[in-house]
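Fold Annotation — chain and its backbone

Fields — amino acid sequence, structure tokens

___
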Amino acid sequence: MEGGVAEADVSAFRECLSLSWKNPFVLRLALSAGIGGFLFGYDTGVISGALLYIRDDFKEVDTKTWLQEAIVSMALAGAIIGASVGGWINDRFGRKKSIVVADTLFFIGSVVMATAMNPATLIVGRVFVGLGVGMASMASPLYISEASPTRVRGALVSLNGLLITGGQFLSYVINLAFTTAPGTWRWMLGVAAIPALTQVILMAFLPESPRWLFRKGREEEAKEILRKIYPPQHVEDEINALKESVEMEVREAAASDKVSIVKLLKTKTVRRGLYAGMGLQIFQQFVGINTVMYYSPTIVQLAGFASNRVALLLSLVTAGLNALGSILSIYFIDKTGRRKLVLLSLCGVVVSLVVLTVVFHETTTHSPMVSTIETSHFNNTCPGYTIATNPSQWDCMTCLKASPQCGFCASRANKLLAGACLISNERTEDECKKEERQWYSRGCPSKYGWLALIGLALYIIFFSPGMGTVPWVVNSEIYPLRYRGICGGIASTSNWVSNLIVAQSFLSLTQAIGTSSTFMIFIFITLAAIIFVIIFVPETKGLPIEQVENMLLTRSLNFKFWQTSSHSTEIPDQKHQSV
């Protein structure tokens, strides 16, 4: 069906690779537009590492958790607005111009962040970047989908997803590269302006989406582009199919009432599709994925690894596993099925969250004690420890929780032995490190730290191939054609809003109830997600889009999730049924 997203399988990917010499124009088009996905992924990953050094430069950020969350989440707030207005800009001005506008906003935001002299300016830059990311997250895959050959459309759209995870991975590499450079985080955030500017230049030499041109009556331009995309023996068929599809869409829009939320909810197929599509997008965020991606270096430090550089290096592993998982999903999603794959994914996420919960509980309850002798060795004792009525019972976690201005200097002999509770500032940190001790201000030394890394790795390995991919695939195929744009927009916005809520609350939760209790909350949410998928999400594997719509009409609850419903391919007389 014109405008749909063809599924990517192994043969499609082989054919996609052959485009590099058969039709390099198509591959250049997909890669150029896919830079938007790369920017999306890069921003997600880069802020996690940059935040470590922003806290060192701006002490108010280090001491105020809400400021850290604001720096991360204001980009998400911008993305919500960008995604909301992006659909209108795409339809009004075209996909190509939308991508260029997104790049321009991203470029401005990167420059503002790199030159920010205070947290407020940095947050303004994050909003600009978010606006660009939100627009690009819609425009890039749409442009690739509408300007790609049908046979490899799914593979080329999936390329955008690979570039997202690739951007995340590269952001950690760049973070590591600039850890010893003057300005550290300014380079990390500012370097993103280069790919944004590169995409603007590349898009200047690429055409507009042929489907959009047809809808605007510019048929000759669209035909010329299609002749570059398709081989000569297929081009006329594709032109006729596109023309008929656009004409039918225009006739349906003219004959139908104006679409409203009430009308959407009264249409059974749309309502059931929204239940599944929005639910998957919301649970994708609320099982905690972006706490791992945004705060993975911080989580690594909470697990007892003090060095910023070590935290970034270990976080690079999670980004690499995320990229690997997105590749694996391409091979398994059509073999295993969407529903089974996402359920297996969620079960694995529960196991990994249990590991993280136990590890952080043990880290918190078995941290090194504070020694009066070790503390008195320095001249700047933490004020809370000085006035404490029971200093002999203080351990590292007590010290760090007493005040944001307190830090822990580990024992020189063994970091797991009793150390010193001191005022947290640059002078104290330097004095501690000069004696070849390790300085902790966000987590405590622990012999369980490596288990936390294993838990993070397991989380990514299980999440990425299933919950990382399936929500987007299901949303691309579960809605009737006429409602696909508005329903997809609603689902995408719900994803960004959920992302914002989780990112804005994670650090506050860890501070208020502890890291282990926060991960325990994610466990219960993941169990709720499993129940939700079993009840509300149908299996769409192997079904044409028309039959997906009919299956939603007749589907009843099926707890045997490993089976495709026997009536899923039955075609009732009516395609829409209202309640």
In short: The chain is about 70% helix and 0% strand. The first helix runs from residue 10 to 22. The mean pLDDT is 80.
